[in-house]
């Protein structure tokens, strides 16, 4: 849990929740804040299983997964390749394309070019290519006077993606099966605070959708899970433009390590399917393995 990424605080919250649930389920749990001594600490602790509650770079991009494979310690969630693919938004889209899944067009551009002129016609979104939790998101609408002024901590290469209007939907896949569809309702857009602050958003599940759209979300999430090579739990996020029907449904991204905080979406969906938080955490531990 924890670690050095931009999503450290989210990871600490996820880790605390999961540790408490696993202790209540009877497991002997050691909470480990992942720092530069991670390898040595794992050797010292010699765990039977690692519950990976890290978010962001290093924790869900294949790095820690590779370390755990080297140590031959079974771990939760996806393996090296699936983690690396899903964390790279552009390569995720390449995988969606190969699987015949719909997504928003995008380009990778230098930070300098993005700030100098519009690299695509507004509206569009600028985001890091390898962060999650809506970290570093800029929305440029049709009324913008010019290109965005990016913060100094944005990477040199960023993704510029055509803005996808519509409702925010999400589906968790547990094992190989989609759980349900959640409709995420916010006053603005689904940013970091809306995701993690109490009352920042409302989650309607199951989502009130036409049957065709509900079924497509479930199917697309399962196909994305398989195409990326995910294991354990994954969550795929969608936008749906109601005016365009099925053609208005697109995949935004697939998260190989969904949040496990009190306001997180996947535990809510699991509970809807009669898996308590403790049961979900226990299932993830028992599902852990190497060679994913």
Short description:
The protein is α+β, with helices and mostly antiparallel strands. The protein is built from ten helices and nine strands. Strand 8 (233-240) and strand 9 (249-255) form a beta hairpin.
Give an account of the 3D structure.
The protein is α+β, with helices and mostly antiparallel strands. It folds into three domains: 8-77, Rossmann fold, CATH 3.40.50.20; 85-102 and 165-287, 2-Layer Sandwich (D-amino Acid Aminotransferase, Chain A, domain 1), CATH 3.30.470.20; 106-162. The protein has helices at residues 8-24, 38-45, 63-71, 80-87, 89-98, 111-116, 192-196, 211-228, 265-272, 277-287; strands at 106-110, 124-128, 138-140, 157-162, 167-174, 177-185, 202-204, 233-240, 249-255. The strands form two sheets. Strands 7-6-5-8-9 form a five-stranded antiparallel beta sheet. A four-stranded antiparallel beta sheet has the order 1-4-2-3. The longest helix has 18 residues, at 211-228. The protein is globular and about 55 Å long. Mean pLDDT is 92; it is low at 189-196.
The pLDDT mean sits at: 92
> Can you identify the CATH superfamily of the largest domain?
ATP-grasp fold, B domain
Unreliable spans are 189-196
Side by side, the strands of the main sheet go 7-6-5-8-9
CATH topology of the largest domain: D-amino Acid Aminotransferase, Chain A, domain 1
Q: Any idea of the CATH class of the largest domain?
A: Alpha Beta
Q: What summary fits the major beta sheet?
A: 5 strands, antiparallel
Structural class of the helices, strands and pairings? alpha+beta
Radius of gyration: 19 Å
Number of H- or I-type helical stretches: 10
Anisotropy-based shape: globular
Portion in helices: 25-40%
CATH architecture label name of the largest domain: 2-Layer Sandwich
Helix/strand order, N-terminal first: HHHHHEHEEEEEHEHEEHH
Q: Beta fraction of the residues?
A: 15-25%
Number-wise, the strands total 9
């Amino acid at each position: 849990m924890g670690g050095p990424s931009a999503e450290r605080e989210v990871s600490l919250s996820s880790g605390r929740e999961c540790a408490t649930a696993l202790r209540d389920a009877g497991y002997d749990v050691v909470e480990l804040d992942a720092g530069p001594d991670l390898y040595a600490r794992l050797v010292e602790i010699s765990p039977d299983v690692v519950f990976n509650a890290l978010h962001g770079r290093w924790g869900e991009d294949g790095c820690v997964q590779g370390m755990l494979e080297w140590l031959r310690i079974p771990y939760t969630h996806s393996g090296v390749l699936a983690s690396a693919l899903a964390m790279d938004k552009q390569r995720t889209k390449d995988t969606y394309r190969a699987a015949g899944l719909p997504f928003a067009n995008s380009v990778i551009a230098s930070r300098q070019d993005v700030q100098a002129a519009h690299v695509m016609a507004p509206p569009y979104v600028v985001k890091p290519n390898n962060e999650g939790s809506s970290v570093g998101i800029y929305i440029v609408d049709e009324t913008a006077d010019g290109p965005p002024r990016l913060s100094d901590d944005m990477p040199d290469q960023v993704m510029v993606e055509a803005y996808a209007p519509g409702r925010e939907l999400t589906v968790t896949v547990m094992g190989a099966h989609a759980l349900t569809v959640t409709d995420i309702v916010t006053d603005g857009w689904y940013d970091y605070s809306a995701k993690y602050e109490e009352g920042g958003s409302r989650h309607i599940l199951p989502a009130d959708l036409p049957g065709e759209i509900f079924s497509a979300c479930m199917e697309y999430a399962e196909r994305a899970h398989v195409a990326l090579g995910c294991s354990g739990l994954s969550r795929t996020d969608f936008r749906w433009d109601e005016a365009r029907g099925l053609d208005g449904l697109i995949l935004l991204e697939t998260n190989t390590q969904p949040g496990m905080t009190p306001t997180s979406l996947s535990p809510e969906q699991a509970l809807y399917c009669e898996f308590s938080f403790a049961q979900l955490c226990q299932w993830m531990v028992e599902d852990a393995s190497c060679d994913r």
